[in-house]
Amino acid sequence: MTVKGPYGVINHGDGYAIVIVQTGECIARNISSFLDCVKTIDHLLGTMPPPPPPPPPPNDDKELDRVLQDYKPDIQRLIRKYAPETRRVKKNSNFLGYTWYKCYDDSGKVLGRVRGSSDDRYWQYGGLDSQKHY
Fold first, then answer.
1. Residues 66 and 119 in one domain
2. What integer pLDDT is reported at residue 80 of this predicted model?
3. Is residue 20 located within the same domain as residue 66?
4. For all residues of the chain together, what is the average pLDDT?
5. Which of 48, 73, 121, 128 is 20 to 30 A from 82 in CA distance terms?
């Protein structure tokens, strides 16, 4: 995913699609070239008001506390800041020893990931090429 402002470009079928990053809502499909996507996003950013913020998460701090109790404070801080609606966290690692924590909501939708080493943790909404949030 390539991100520009609140919008992202993803491969979709034989072409590209533009999505709102925070909600995952697809606002344009079947765009033939990446450059057309960038031009469309530039147009959207210049003419349309930004998409509405997502609804506030339910105030269920006890559930989030329970989910995060086994994780280090730096991981808890990022999840509380960027995905307070988290209801499940799955720890993953690869053969190189890299570890990341994938966060899910009630419906099983991936909200994002905590990545990085213990002295440089960051949050990512999308894949490896998406913006890092500290």
1. yes
2. 92
3. no
4. 85
5. 48
